[in-house]
Every structure is written in C-alpha cells, then in structure tokens.
C-alpha cells in the first residue's frame, strides 16, 4: 500500500503579519494547500492522502477539501504534531490504526507549501522508496556552501559538487521508518530537521530523487509573489 502525508502543521511565522497559517493563503484563486492536495489526488496509486494540520484548522481544512476536491473518502484530515517528525509519526499511527500494512508499504511525505511538485517527482519517490526503503528529493547546490560553527567565522567550504539542497517529498517504507524513529534517543530527536535524517543517523541509505528548481517552498511573502508569477506562467 502507498500513502501520502501532506504536512501542514506549521503556523507560518516567517510569512509576516497574516491572519492565517501560510498554507491557507491564496495562490491564484485557491489556497496553497489545495494546489498541493490536488497533485496527490490525481495519482490513483495512493490508498489514502493524509493531511496533517493544527487542531484548530482541521474543520477549515476539511471544508476546503470538500469545496475544491469534493467529498472524497481518499483524503483524511487529522491533527499534526508540535514538530515535523511528530507530525509524520501521527500519520504513521493513523495508517496503522486503519490499514493492514506490511514491510513494503510506503509513505510519501510532502510540505503543504510546495504546490509545484510534478507527477514525475511523485512517481520516482514511490519507485525509489519501494525499491530502496528511503529517498529524498534534492537539487544540486548552485551557490557555494559555507559552513560556520559559530556563525561568525568560516569553518569550512565543502566541495559544491557534493552539495545538494533538500526539497520534498521524502518517502520511506513505513515500518522501517517507525522502527528507526523509535530507536532514536531523546538527544537524537532534538537535532532532527527532517525524516531523512532519521535514516542517516542510523546508518541507513537514503537515495536521491532529482528535484526541480520550480518545486519551491513558500515561506516568505516574496515566495508567494514568485509563486503567483509562476502560476500565471503555467
């Protein structure tokens, strides 16, 4: 079985003084999150699409799904966690409570505010996660990456040819993800920035899916302006 988890748990502080989390702001004539849900909904490989959002926004999100996508049983809206990986594990818990999954079952996790992902990226995430157990969508770094341990002085300048910028989706075999997450110490959980790092910390391979520069994350007001420009150009 294959599942999608659309991560909409954030409140978007970096978007500035807005009245709602950034995933609910309009992109064109629809909320950002709706564009993202639609990209997954048209792929019939997904048994269930799970949208995880802040508890106060569950009803609003469900109403958006009903309005723009339709009253469909393929989409569930549930509460996210306080941090990213807790949100993903909420999705895993929901899947285990409602489905009989096995070691080949896959979860494709994606940021709700990356509405421009393509069918190819989704398909390759499904393929690579099923084949290898874990994959991450990335694009090659175009700028030189500078590392600073103290934020004041350069510690090192890694070889740019080995550097990639992470995007999403990130996709995993569900039971392996749960096993590795539950084996983490509290200290290891504190340094996690995404789910792929769970596999890296535990010495597991994470394979690369080629992303696209258009697969942007809408984080700041400028990003939303760019995204609206991209939408008009489609």
From TrEMBL:
GO biological process, one term: isoprenoid biosynthetic process
Domain of life: Archaea
Keyword Transport carried by entry: no
Keywords: Cell wall biogenesis/degradation, Nucleotidyltransferase, Transferase
Pfam families xref list: IspD (PF01128)
Any one GO MF annotation of this record: D-ribitol-5-phosphate cytidylyltransferase activity
NCBIfam families reported in the protein's UniProt record: PRK00155.1-3 (NF001183)
PANTHER family xref list: 2-C-METHYL-D-ERYTHRITOL 4-PHOSPHATE CYTIDYLYLTRANSFERASE, CHLOROPLASTIC, RIBITOL-5-PHOSPHATE CYTIDYLYLTRANSFERASE
Protein name (record): 2-C-methyl-D-erythritol 4-phosphate cytidylyltransferase
Organism whose genome encodes this protein: Methanobacterium veterum
């Amino acid at each position: 079985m294959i599942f999608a988890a659309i991560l909409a748990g954030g409140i978007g502080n970096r978007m500035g003084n807005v009245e709602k989390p950034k995933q609910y702001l309009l992109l064109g004539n629809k909320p950002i999150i709706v564009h993202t849900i639609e990209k997954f909904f048209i792929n019939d490989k997904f048994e269930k699409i799970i949208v995880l959002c802040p508890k106060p926004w569950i009803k609003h999100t469900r109403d958006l799904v009903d309005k723009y996508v339709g009253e469909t049983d393929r989409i569930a809206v549930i509460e996210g966690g306080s941090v990213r990986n807790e949100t993903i594990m909420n999705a895993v818990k929901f899947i285990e409570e409602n489905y009989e999954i096995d070691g080949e079952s896959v979860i494709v996790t994606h940021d709700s505010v990356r509405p421009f992902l393509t069918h190819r990226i989704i398909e390759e995430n499904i393929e690579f996660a099923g084949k290898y157990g874990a994959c991450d969508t990335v694009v090659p770094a175009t700028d030189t990456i500078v590392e600073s341990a103290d934020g004041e002085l350069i510690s090192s300048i890694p070889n740019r040819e080995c550097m990639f910028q992470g995007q999403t989706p990130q996709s995993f075999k569900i039971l392996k993800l749960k096993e590795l997450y539950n084996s983490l110490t509290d200290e290891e959980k504190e340094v996690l920035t995404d789910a792929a790092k769970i596999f890296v910390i535990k010495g597991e391979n994470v394979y690369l899916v080629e992303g696209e520069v258009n697969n942007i994350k809408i984080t700041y007001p400028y990003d939303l302006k760019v995204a609206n420009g991209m939408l008009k150009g489609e």
